[in-house]
């Protein structure tokens, strides 16, 4: 779909559909009020008849509104004006796009992007509007010979800005939004691919293509290279599969100096997780193709950063393999040696993600990183703790944790800072090795993070447990593309700080006629 940024009055738009907002109690937004006036109160009359009350996410499409140039006017409920914030804005955008696909309109102009969300500017409004629009339109039907429900995707969507002087900010927001949305689409596509297609070799090939198309560097290490590095923990997981393991390394040089210390993103790339000898239950095992969503999100964030040409150096490290049972598979009770030299007693082969990540975290030391963030669908315990709303966040630096949490809040991809106290390390004691790979059921997400922390002492490090946020289950099961938005915002913030710019977060937008009450939170 083509996007466009425009400044202009809604009553002058000769287009298939104009999208405007209505608050609860039938209060019209500025754009809706202009249409109401030119139509001699037509919209207000419709609302007074009770066809729409402005409930958040509700929509009503009006045809042939008098004295307007557009074919349709879509009214979108915004909820209570005093409660209209970032979450409500995103929900209104999503509702408008879903309703638009149920019409025959091939072009639309949305004035929802002109609304005011406290502490956010025009650039943010357009960026988030673009991301949510692309997310709402996402479909994965690559393997269907016939689509069950054909979606009528509009050919063109124009996002309105309040003034001509806002066009530059709008264009920048659109470019950022498209980069983030493209990164999310990449992550979702990779996550939704079946395990017989998205193998470690396939993931490596896709990474190589990304580097070629975006001006990065790719290095793909095979089994012999991995073995030469001493990654015995990583290779122990790969032993049960006929699919060869791959260590994928992508480099993007955006800083003025190639020698500037990079941010390193490490992504768990288990392309299918059967549990190994500690076999998972059969029910729901199909969803274990999503166990590489950490890798997928790292690739998506790397691609978005390269597309945005962020002025920083960025490295992606992705250990990828399958976790399968076989006569050669690693067994409970086996002891393996990691790249760091530390030994690990494997008590449960289904706790395999940490076994491949620990060697990748040791490998990351060679880049002299400014910071390292690993992303993994690591523990069911994190789902129990936080559900499917927030990503679990652990870090050995509170400042880093705060930066990641703030980035997530900015883009609606939230994380919650979890404890990483020394007392939890006791759970990993083993009588036969330096540590066990599990610490028991209690505090399972914490002990998994504690395990990883033992391999990340050489640098500032954070761990994102996305087991509850990387995909959704049920009849509409799909990868979500999280935490690509969080990671990209985090990278953008670091780039801004490095350049001496003020971080965009919290910068108040110039007020318009629709400014939300200053007493609102």
Automatic annotation (TrEMBL):
Domain (Cytosol aminopeptidase) spans 348-355
For this record, the Gene Ontology CC terms, alphabetical, are: cytoplasm
Listed GO biological process terms = proteolysis
Q: Which residues form the active site?
A: 280, 354
Give me the reactions it catalyses: Release of an N-terminal amino acid, preferentially leucine, but not glutamic or aspartic acids; Release of an N-terminal amino acid, Xaa-|-Yaa-, in which Xaa is preferably Leu, but may be other amino acids including Pro although not Arg or Lys, and Yaa may be Pro. Amino acid amides and methyl esters are also readily hydrolyzed, but rates on arylamides are exceedingly low
Q: Which family does it belong to?
A: Belongs to the peptidase M17 family.
Q: What is this protein called?
A: Probable cytosol aminopeptidase
Task: Identify the taxonomic lineage of the organism of origin.
Answer: Bacteria, Pseudomonadati, Pseudomonadota, Betaproteobacteria, Neisseriales
């Amino acid at each position: 779909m083509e996007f466009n940024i425009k400044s202009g009055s809604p009553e002058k738009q000769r287009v298939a559909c104009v999208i405007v907002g209505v608050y609860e109690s039938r209060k019209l937004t500025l754009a809706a009020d202009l249409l109401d006036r030119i139509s001699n109160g037509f919209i207000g009359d419709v609302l007074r008849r009770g066809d729409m009350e402005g409930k958040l996410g509700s929509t009503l499409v009006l045809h042939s509104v008098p004295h307007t140039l557009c074919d349709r006017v879509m009214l979108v409920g915004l909820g209570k004006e005093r409660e209209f914030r970032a979450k409500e804005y995103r929900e209104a955008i999503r509702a408008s796009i879903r309703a638009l696909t149920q019409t025959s309109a091939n072009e639309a102009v949305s004035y929802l992007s002109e609304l005011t969300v406290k502490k956010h500017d025009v650039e943010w409004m357009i960026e988030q509007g673009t991301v949510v629009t692309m997310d709402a339109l996402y479909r994965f039907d690559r393997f269907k010979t016939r689509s069950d429900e054909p979606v009528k995707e509009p050919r063109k969507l124009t996002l309105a800005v309040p003034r001509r002087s806002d066009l530059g900010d709008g264009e920048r927001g659109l470019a950022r939004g498209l980069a983030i949305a493209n990164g999310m689409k990449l992550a979702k596509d990779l996550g939704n691919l079946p395990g017989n297609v998205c193998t470690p070799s396939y993931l490596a090939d896709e990474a190589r293509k990304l580097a070629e198309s975006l001006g990065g560097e790719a290095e793909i290490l095979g089994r012999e290279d991995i073995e030469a590095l001493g990654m015995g923990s990583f290779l122990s997981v790969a032993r049960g599969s006929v699919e060869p393991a791959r260590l994928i390394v992508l480099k993007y040089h955006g800083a003025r100096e190639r020698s500037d210390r990079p941010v390193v993103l490490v992504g768990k790339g288990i392309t299918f997780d059967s549990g190994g000898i500690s076999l998972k239950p059969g029910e729901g095992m199909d969803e274990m193709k999503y166990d590489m969503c950490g890798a997928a999100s790292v690739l998506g964030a790397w691609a978005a950063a390269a597309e945005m040409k962020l002025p920083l150096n960025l490295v992606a490290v992705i250990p990828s393999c399958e976790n399968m049972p076989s006569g050669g598979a690693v067994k409970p009770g086996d002891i393996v040696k990691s790249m760091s030299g530390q030994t690990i007693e494997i008590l449960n082969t289904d706790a395999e993600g940490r076994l491949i990540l620990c060697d990748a975290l040791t490998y990351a030391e060679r880049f002299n990183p400014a910071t390292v963030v690993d992303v993994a669908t690591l523990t069911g315990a994190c789902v129990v703790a936080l559900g499917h709303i927030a990503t679990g966040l652990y870090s050995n630096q509170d400042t880093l944790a705060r930066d990641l949490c703030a980035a997530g809040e900015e883009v609606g991809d939230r994380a919650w800072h979890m404890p990483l106290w020394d007392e939890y390390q006791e759970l990993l004691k083993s009588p036969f090795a330096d540590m066990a790979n599990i610490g028991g059921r209690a505090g399972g997400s914490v002990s998994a993070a504690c395990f990883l922390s033992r391999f990340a002492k050489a640098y500032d490090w954070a761990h994102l447990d996305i087991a509850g946020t990387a995909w959704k289950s049920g009849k509409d099961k799909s990868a979500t593309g999280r935490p690509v938005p969080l990671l990209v915002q985090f990278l953008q913030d670091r780039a801004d700080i490095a350049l001496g710019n003020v971080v965009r977060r919290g910068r108040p937008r110039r007020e318009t006629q629709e400014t939300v009450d200053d007493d609102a939170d």
